[in-house]
Design brief:
This protein has about 325 residues and is an all-alpha fold. Helices cover about 70% and strands about 0% of the residues. It contains 15 helices and two strands. It has a two-stranded antiparallel sheet. A hairpin with a 6-residue loop joins strand 1 and strand 2. Helix 8 packs antiparallel against helix 9 and helix 14 runs antiparallel to helix 15.
């Protein structure tokens, strides 16, 4: 019974991975931050990387029309630029603010960019990504809709809208957005990961496995694809396959505490208590390094389980 409670805690939860356009020019490059906790499959938006020298976002005021108008007038007076050039300037300022984690400031700048050029779909897209990061999901949804109205072939916007729809519990429509992203870009790994994670949430484990396998083929060095695949396989009691993919996960990312925890739990199920103990201790060590209190609490329960099973065969 104790073992089943741990399994539910480990495998039943789920997240989402969005997409973020970051960079210095209008044709921004994509990067994203992966989800972390054990068993928490997460959807990825196109996310951005934070700068260690960033200001605290609570020190920045939310955008308002007067600020946007004043910024625009200042730029107009200082430069003999046409509206499209001014829009591009605001857009690039918004990207820099995102990189510095100044999210409300970025909202001002993307909004100013849109005011100058309402056809700039990347400004809507990135403003939507900021709104999503600030948990303003309805506003984010509006922005992604606008971006796709302008450019209906922009795969990243379908992925990000799918993430927001999933957060709003609109799973069927979210799946359709991931389907569309894959139709537009069959090699889009994040779209497969997100669709697989959503299938996990709806207990479609076989479908999730297919998506995670496809993601691992597209990006064979992405540990997250193997990690998600192992979790889905374990959920279907495919323990040997899951073990192989936990091993691959840790080969690519030996700092993944959750993978050690999950592999240790799997080895308990396979009655390999000695190796289960080694994994649990490694997970504990990493969680202590990262000061992850929830992970430490889970690992303590796993260590108790291993001790009980080993001494009560």
């Amino acid at each position: 019974m104790f073992f089943k409670r741990i399994c539910v805690l480990l495998l039943a939860s789920s997240l989402a991975y969005p997409v973020w356009s970051s960079g210095e020019e209008i044709d921004a490059q994509e990067s994203y931050t992966s989800g972390e906790e054990e068993g928490d499959n997460s959807s990825q938006e196109a996310d951005y990387e934070n700068n260690n020298e960033s200001e605290n976002i609570e020190n920045i005021n939310e955008p308002n029309n007067e600020q946007i108008s004043e910024q625009s007038e200042n730029l107009d007076s200082q430069n003999s630029l046409n509206p499209a050039e001014i829009a591009t300037s605001f857009y690039n300022q918004g990207l820099k603010s995102v990189q510095q984690d100044q999210l409300f400031k970025a909202l001002n700048e993307f909004s100013a960019s849109i005011n100058k050029d309402s056809s700039l779909y990347l400004a809507y897209f990135n403003r939507g990504s900021v709104n999503s990061r600030l948990t303003k999901y309805e506003k984010a949804l509006d922005d992604y809709n606008e971006a796709l109205e302008i450019n209906p072939n922009y795969a990243k916007a379908y992925v990000n809208r799918g993430v927001v729809l999933a957060k709003l519990k609109n799973y069927d429509t979210a799946i359709k957005d991931y389907d569309k992203a894959i139709e537009l870009d069959p090699a889009y790994e994040i779209a497969y990961l997100n669709r697989g994670n959503l299938k996990m949430q709806t207990n479609n484990y076989k479908g999730a496995i297919q998506d995670f396998e496809k993601a691992s083929l597209i990006e064979p060095n992405d540990s997250e694809a193997y990690y998600a695949l192992a979790i889905a396989q374990a959920r279907l009691d495919e323990y040997e396959k899951a073990l192989t993919n936990y091993n691959k996960t840790l080969e690519l990312n030996p700092e993944n505490a959750g993978a050690y925890y999950n592999r240790g739990l799997l080895k308990v199920r396979l009655s390999d208590y000695k190796l289960a103990l080694e994994d649990a201790k490694k997970a504990q060590e990493l969680y202590e390094t990262y000061t992850e209190s929830l992970g430490l609490a889970r690992t303590e329960k796993l260590l108790e389980l291993i001790d009980y099973k080993a001494n009560n065969p």
